[in-house]
Structures are given as C-alpha cells and as structure tokens.
C-alpha cells in the first residue's frame, strides 16, 4: 500500500520513500548560487589583478622614468661613445649607480692588472713634430734656446730610447719660440711598459681659457658653448681635461670674474691671471676670485709644493682625499698639472699610476707646484692642433679609445682648458 501524505491544502500525494526524503531545489535558487559563485570568482580575480597592478606599478614607474631619463641623456650632444655615455648615465642618474659602475668595471681591471717587469719597449709613441732647422741667429743660439725651452726630462732608465724626454714642438714658433712642447718618457723601472705623456705651455706665448661642460661644473655662471668657440679656433693650439668634479671635494671654479661653484679654502687652485700669468695656489681667499683673476679651477689638495711631494699622499684607492678609482684599484690612468720655476704650465697623463707616482712624474718633469686632475681611463685627454689648407687638424697625445680627437670641438659633458695663441690686452675667456 502506498502511503498517503497530506499537503497543507488537504490533498493527498503519492510519494515513494526516496522522494519523501528529498525535496526539490527551485531553479531560481540554483541560478542565484551560480551567479554568487561567479561574482565571487570575479571579485577574487579583480583583487588579484589589483594586487599585481599595485606590485607592478613602482616597477613600471621606474621603467618609464629610466626610458625617459636615458633618452634625454643620450640625445644630448657629446663626443663620448655610447658605452661610456651609458655608463655616465648610470653613474649620475641611477641611485647607487656610481657603485654599480665601479663594481662592474672592477672585474675588468682585476683581470688585467699592471704587471711589474716584462720586456722593454723598443720605441716610444711618436709625439710632436720634427724640430725644424732654425735659421734666425737670435733663435738658433744656445743662449736663446736655453732661455725658451725647458731642459730635457732626464730619462729614468739607464738606456734611454730614442727621443726619450726630448721636447718637440706641436706647431709653428711664436716670437722666436715654441708655444707648446710635448715629450714622453718611461717613469718607473719596475714598470718598463708604462709611458708618461707630458706637455709644456709657455705662458709668454700662450693664453689659456677654462670652459664649463654640459654638466660640470654643475652651476656654471655662464655655461657657454661647452666646446672651443668657433671663432676662436683659428688660434687654437691645444686642449686638455679638467680636474675632479665639484662633488668630489667641493672643487670650485670661476670664469671672467664670475663664480661657477664657490672656491674652497685649502684646495689646490690653478689660476689664470688677467695679465697672462699662471699659478697654482693653496686657496685661502674665500668663495670668490678677485678682479685680477681671469679664471680659476680647483682640484683637491696640492700634491707637489715647493718642489716636494705632499707628505699626506697615500696609495689608498678608496681615499676620498685623492679620489675614488674605478674598480677600487690604486693604479689607473691619472692626469695632473704643475707649474715650473719659470711660471710655465706642465700637463701630465699616464696609465697605471697612483697619486704618489703621478706626483713624482710631475716633479721629475720640472714642476715645483702641482695638483691632481681627472683620473680613470675615460677622461684623460690631451689634444694638440695644427692649421693647414684643410683646416684644423687635431692630434690625440696619449691614445684614449673612449674619446675622439674631436673632443672639445663638439659639446662635451665636462669642463676643459683651451690653449690659444695670445691676443693683445688682458686675458679673458672668450665664449663666442
């Protein structure tokens, strides 16, 4: 017999035991449940996407910033190759970039350190011109020559190579004497492969100008053309690199009486006076130059003073007093300038030098006062110029594959010096 179940309305309905145990679920409830699950899944996916977006946003912002910053940096006019240019962008624009570049380059330097000993060089790099036969009685006499030319640099090695330490002109004579002389010599017996490149500028036959680059000094009073001005190239004799950046020791500078960065007391300061004189002083005059100064450029403390090495010099590669080196090595490309006892300027560049050996090179070349200029392989630059039928011809003295001989004839990132034939009147730095 089937069991009868009375409904609320009093009607009886046949039902099996299984049917009596379960009741049907309305379709609308099933749909609602499915929709709720779907909405829940969508909400979860939205939250996941939002979390991913929140996490990725900083990286996207950094990526966009890097792309814009790098593009803006690279499109600026410069003579540097793209790889050196890129490294400078990392060094100057990226947080901890200076450290990253140094660490990366340290690997290369540690794999190729300078080695003592080894075979002797058979010849020195060719620099300067063949000394012309002098016909003027006033310029050919030994007395006149000795009064103009600096003494040859005494070779360090017992068996000198041809032309070692012998000065050669880089252009025509001016008023019976050479405005610019260059030479090379091997400075260390323990490193027979190393060569020092030396230039000498006669302060009575040259006029020197100091020019800001694109970003060094950071706050130039007048930024100028960032290269040798076009209308001054007819009298251009040479160019060479500047000193340490302003941030590396508060190295101040000035042009035409206007301060770029405030000068710091105690820093070695190369000064060009309006009367044509050149000097290196231990600065103690406050943040600004006087009216007698045409230009000034500081770079750390003196390394040679009154003919003697600064006793505070040391070989610590990470000493901020003498500059940080790429890869934390003590021996890198270094440059420096000095003043001889007659008031003439001497420039030196050499590979694999410490600040102490650089000071010794300048001292050996005749400097009685000297200061360290820029270091590391990107920056050493000494260029001489000749003038011919085809125009200005630059010659790099001391090979630098990271720079072009046209450096300073196109806008450059860093400050530099231009050596000119002199003009009548007080010395000024021409920006046009």
Mean pLDDT, as a whole number?
A: 83
Helix content: 10-25%
- Total strand segments: 20
Flag low-confidence runs: 1-13, 132-147
Strand order of the largest sheet: 3-4-5-16-15-17-13-14
Structural category is alpha+beta
Radius of gyration: 35 Å
Strand content: 15-25%
Characterize the largest beta sheet: strand count, sense, and whether it forms a barrel: 8 strands, antiparallel
Number of domains: 2
Q: What count of helical segments does DSSP give?
A: 7
What are the main properties of this structure?
432 residues; alpha+beta; 2 domains; eight-stranded antiparallel beta sheet; five-stranded antiparallel beta sheet; 23% helix; 24% strand; elongated; disordered N terminus
How would you describe this structure to a colleague?
- The N and C termini lie far apart (120 Å).
- The chain is 23% helix and 24% strand.
- Strands 3-4-5-16-15-17-13-14 form an 8-stranded antiparallel β-sheet, with helices on one face.
- It has 2 domains: 33-75; 137-420, no CATH class.
- It is elongated, with a radius of gyration of 35 Å.
- By secondary structure, the protein is α+β, with helices and mostly antiparallel strands.
- It contains 7 helices and 20 strands.
- Helix 2 (27-74) packs across helix 3 (82-93) and helix 3 (82-93) packs across helix 4.
- Mean pLDDT is 83; it is low at 1-13 and 132-147.
- Strand 8 and strand 9 form a beta hairpin.
Describe what is shown at a glance.
The chain is of the alpha+beta class. The chain contains seven helices and 20 strands.
């Amino acid at each position: 017999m089937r069991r009868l179940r009375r409904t609320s309305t009093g009607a009886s309905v046949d039902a099996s035991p299984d049917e009596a145990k379960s009741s049907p679920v309305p379709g609308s409830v099933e749909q609602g449940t499915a929709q709720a699950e779907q909405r829940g899944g969508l909400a979860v996916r939205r939250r996941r996407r939002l979390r991913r977006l929140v996490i990725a946003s900083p990286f996207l912002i950094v990526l966009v910033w890097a792309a814009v910053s790098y593009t803006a940096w690279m499109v600026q006019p410069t003579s540097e190759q793209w790889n050196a240019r890129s490294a400078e962008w990392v060094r100057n624009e990226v947080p901890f970039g200076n450290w990253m570049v140094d660490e990366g380059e340290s690997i290369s330097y540690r794999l190729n350190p300078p080695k003592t000993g080894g075979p002797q060089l058979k010849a020195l790099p060719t620099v300067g011109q063949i000394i012309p036969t002098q016909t003027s009685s006033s310029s050919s006499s030994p007395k006149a020559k000795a009064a103009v030319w600096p003494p040859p640099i005494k070779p360090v090695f017992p068996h000198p190579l041809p032309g070692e330490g012998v000065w050669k002109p880089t252009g025509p004579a001016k008023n019976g004497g050479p405005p610019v002389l260059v030479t090379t010599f091997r400075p260390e017996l323990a490193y027979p492969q190393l060569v020092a490149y030396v230039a000498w500028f006669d302060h009575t036959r040259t006029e020197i100008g100091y020019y800001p680059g694109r970003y060094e000094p950071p706050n130039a009073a007048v930024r100028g053309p960032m290269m040798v001005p076009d209308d001054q190239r007819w009298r251009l004799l040479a160019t060479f690199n500047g000193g340490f950046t302003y941030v590396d020791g508060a190295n101040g500078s000035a042009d035409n009486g206007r301060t770029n960065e405030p000068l710091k007391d105690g820093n070695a300061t190369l000064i060009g006076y309006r009367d044509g004189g050149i000097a290196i002083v231990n600065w103690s005059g406050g943040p600004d130059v006087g009216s007698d100064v045409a230009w000034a450029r500081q770079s750390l403390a003196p390394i040679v003073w009154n003919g003697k090495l600064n006793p505070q010099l040391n070989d610590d590669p990470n000493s901020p007093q003498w500059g940080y080196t790429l890869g934390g090595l003590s021996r890198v490309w270094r440059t420096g300038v000095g003043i001889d006892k007659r008031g003439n300027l001497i420039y030196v560049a050499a590979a694999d030098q410490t600040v102490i050996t650089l000071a010794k090179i300048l001292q050996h070349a005749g400097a009685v006062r000297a200061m360290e200029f820029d270091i590391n392989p990107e920056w050493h630059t000494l260029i001489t110029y000749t003038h011919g039928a085809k125009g200005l011809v630059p010659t790099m003295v001391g090979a630098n594959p990271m720079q072009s001989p046209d450096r300073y004839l196109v806008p450059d990132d860093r400050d530099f010096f231009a050596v000119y034939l002199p003009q009548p009147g007080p010395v000024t730095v021409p920006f046009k």
